[in-house]
Amino acid sequence: MNAIGDVVIVGAGHAGFSLASALADSGFKGRISLINGEGGLPYQRPPLSKKYLSDGKHEDLFFQPKAFFESDGILLVQDAVIAIDRAAQTVLTKSGKSIPYDALVLATGTSAIQISLSGDEGDVAYLDNLNAAIDLRRRLAEVRRVAVIGAGFIGMEFASAAIGKSISVAVVDNASRPMERSTSQDVSMYFQNELLEAGVIFHFQASAIAIRRRDGRVEAVELKCGTEVPADLVLLGIGTRPNVELALQAGLACSNGVVVDEFLATSDPHIFVIGDCAAFPAAGGKTHHRITSVQNATDQARYLAQRLLGREESSYRKVPWFWSDQGPNKLQIVGLPGQADLFVTRDSGVAGKFSVFGYREEVLVSVESVNRPGDHALARKILERGISPDPKEVGSGDFDLRGLLDKTPQRREMAFNN
Amino acid sequence: MPKVSFIDKFGAESQVDCEIGATLMTSAKRAGIKGIEAECGGTLSCATCHVYIENADEKIAPASSSEDEMLEAVAAERKPVSRLACQIPITDGVDGIVVRIPETQF
After folding, report:
1. Looking at the predicted structure, is the pLDDT value of residue A415 above 50?
2. How far apart are alpha carbons A297 and A15 in whole angstroms?
3. Which of A20, A194, A219, A272 has its CB 3.0 to 4.6 Å from that of A214, i.e. a possible disulfide?
4. pLDDT value, residue A285
5. Distance between CA A134 and CA A131 in Å, rounded?
6. Strand partners, A360
């Protein structure tokens, strides 16, 4: 790759910020423009559905203070990109600026999927940015009853935060258990039981069809089965969609994300995509997938920084990991449990602390750890090194996970197949 | 305010006044100290705020079992003086500690 002068990054979430920071840190000599359509200082999203809702400090959400961008030569542009001119290699901003690029990186992330429920007068809440979190935190101080539609990570984390404030909480989902697509049955049931014990009411295999109001205020959510769930506040957390509008408009291929190759490049050699909105090759290139996590955003950012600097020849390959904090419980996941066809639970002997090993065709593909950070820490290394312990042995609490690493010190080709 | 010395991977030292009630990780971030990433925002999920504190003595409470377990995931060499900066609250007691930042967090 030729030397690059101007790198323009669209989106200042974990992916965009990390790329700017990694380029600056690696001695990049050109100009780095980090375009933040939201305004303000770039901030972290994960705490918005967790600690920030209860007692998190606003200033701790920021990646770095303002002075960091100045001292590192990162031009933080408070503007929104409205179009890409691929022929001229420029982006056009809302305020009318035209910014030239040698490399353009789309790190536009995702937005909450919105649905229109009858009776919604714009007060159904979504949680996908800081302003929404500020608003929800304020509303949580005023309401008595909350209905959460969607029992995914956002819904479960929000429900945990709300029940912790002694608010009545009901969770509605058309699946049959929480976090169904991303976790094994055992993990799912553990978190469901924890929230049940805390007082949360679940409505599974149910869908919300309308918001009922009285005197202009939200009073309940009506379910298709006829049940009414009383609520002063309704949060919709049914998933996210990738922000692909700019890419589509520029004629780039999009299919559940902006499609990139194994080097995170689009079909235009000057345009790259990282983070939640990137659809990158999986299963040896047979298909593409999109991973929405901090790890994926920052690993892709660091990879692309080296690639743009001409220091990286190999394709992008990393084992994904995730975490979720729900009340006092911590879930940490390595790999993708959704790919597994067999789950083996490894009990620690202590209630509320266990890990679930997921296998696909007898090869380890995921490890979910509940309140077992040690298992998680080891599992990251085990999957990175492509080690696959025997599913018949791994369930025993006596099985020595660390011993696996000692026995296989060299890094082998990863079994994990992105 | 307690003063803490941070020594970066190149050996450059910075003195930081830390606010009581913050953590060592947030204090470093607010002061613009580099090399303490804290990708999970300080929730003991990622192990990217790894530091070495050589003169901790009785100034800092020892690591909890969860911190000790997550230290297994650090990218740089784990040493007996390894800690996760997000787990160290700033108290008057931390005044004078010297915090070395490892070569890498990834």
Report:
1. no
2. 4
3. A219
4. 85
5. 5
6. A363
Testing the interface with A: which of B39, B78, B101 to mutate, by most A Cβ within 10 A? B39
- Domains of chain A, start order: 6-111+241-308 (3.50.50.60), 114-238 (3.50.50.60), 328-407 (3.30.390.30)
Helix, strand or coil for residue A322? strand
* Cross-strand bridge partners of residue A330: A325
**Domain span including residue B11:** 3-100
* Contact: B46, A294; criterion CB under 8 Å: yes
pLDDT beyond 80 at A416? no
Q: Over pLDDT 70: what percentage of chain A?
A: 97
Q: Mean pLDDT across the stretch A84-91?
A: 98
> How much is the pLDDT for A412?
46
Contact indicator for A276, A297 with CB cutoff of 8 Å: yes
Q: Is B25 on the interface with A (CB under 8 A)?
A: no
What's the predicted TM-score (pTM) here? 0.95
Q: Which two tokens stand for residue A188?
A: 């799912």
Query: What CATH number is associated with residue B30?
Result: 3.10.20.30
* Residues shown for chain B: 106
pLDDT of residue A130: 96
User: If you measure CA to CA, which chain A residue comes closest to B75?
Assistant: A381
Assign A345 a pLDDT band (cuts: 50, 70, 90).
Answer: very high
Count CB atoms within 10 A of the CB of residue A386: 17
d(CA A84, CA A96): 13
Sign of the Cα torsion B45, B49, B53, B57 reads negative
Q: Residue A387: which of A417, A347, A344, A416 has the closest Cα?
A: A416
Residue B44 lies in a domain: yes
Instruction: Give the distance from residue B60's alpha carbon to the nearest chain A alpha carbon, in angstroms.
Output: 22
Q: Evaluate whether residue B38 is within a structural domain.
A: yes
Q: Which residue of B has its CA nearest to A401?
A: B72
Question: How many domains are contained in chain B?
Answer: 1
Is A12 within 8 Å of chain B by CB?
A: no
**Would you say residue A215 has pLDDT above 90?**
yes
Cα–Cα separations (whole angstroms), residue B67 to A57, A117, B45, B88:
22, 44, 10, 10
Q: Specify whether the CB–CB gap between A289 and A279 falls below 8 A.
A: yes
The interface predicted TM-score (ipTM) is 0.93
Residue B106 inside a domain? The answer is no
pLDDT at A308: 97
Query: Cβ of B70 and A330 within 8 Å?
Result: no
What are the tens digits of pLDDT across the range B54-65?
Answer: 888 889 999 999
The pLDDT tens digits for A304-313 are 999 999 999 9
3-state secondary structure (DSSP) of residue B49: coil
Chain-centre distance for alpha carbon A199? 27
Nearest chain B residue (CA) to A295? B39
